[in-house]
Amino acid sequence: QVHVVESGGGLVQAGGSLTLSCSASGFTFASAAMGWFRQAPGKEREGVICINWLSESTYYLDSVKGRFTISRDNAKNTLTLLMESLKPEDTAIYYCAARPRPPIYQSVACSRYSSDYNYWGQGTQVTISS
């Protein structure tokens, strides 16, 4: 059974930092592409950043470059998102998503599209006050 669980959200003042964590089980984490998405009120879910099995990261939002850092610990099946210099426009529900490697492929790439991810967490609320 697959489990994807985010934690670490909360209320922070603008300019502050937050670290989100995602704990996963039930699939081969080490070979999966792992992504963070977010959904602000009244907006569609959007891809933020992804990390592949080689720990190479891909940003999907220019607005978070230089402020957000993604990392993974394959020994602990954990994904982390360090968010710094937070802005009110970062307020959203943040979701962890997993894209496991299909057995017939050597690897799986990151994707900005939510439909490419098989497993999702329940989301964690991040609120940035001005």
Structure write-up:
0% of the residues lie in helices and 47% in strands. It has 130 residues and is mostly beta strands. Strand 4 (33-39) and strand 5 form a beta hairpin. The model has no long low-confidence stretch (mean pLDDT 97).
Give the H and E element order. EEEEEEEEEEE
Number of helices: 0
Oligomeric state as shown: single chain
Instruction: Specify the structural class.
Output: mainly beta
Compute the CA-based radius of gyration.
14 Å
Largest sheet properties? 7 strands, mixed
Distance between the termini: 41 Å
Total strand segments: 11
- The portion of residues forming beta strands comes to over 45%
List low-pLDDT spans.
none
Mean model confidence by pLDDT = 97
CA-based shape: globular
List the helices and strands and how they pair.
Elements (H helix, E strand, L loop, with lengths): L2 E5 L2 E4 L4 E8 L7 E7 L6 E6 L5 E3 L8 E6 L4 E6 L8 E8 L19 E2 L3 E6 L1
Parallel strand pairs: 2-11
Antiparallel strand pairs: 1-3, 3-8, 4-5, 4-9, 5-6, 7-8, 9-10, 9-11
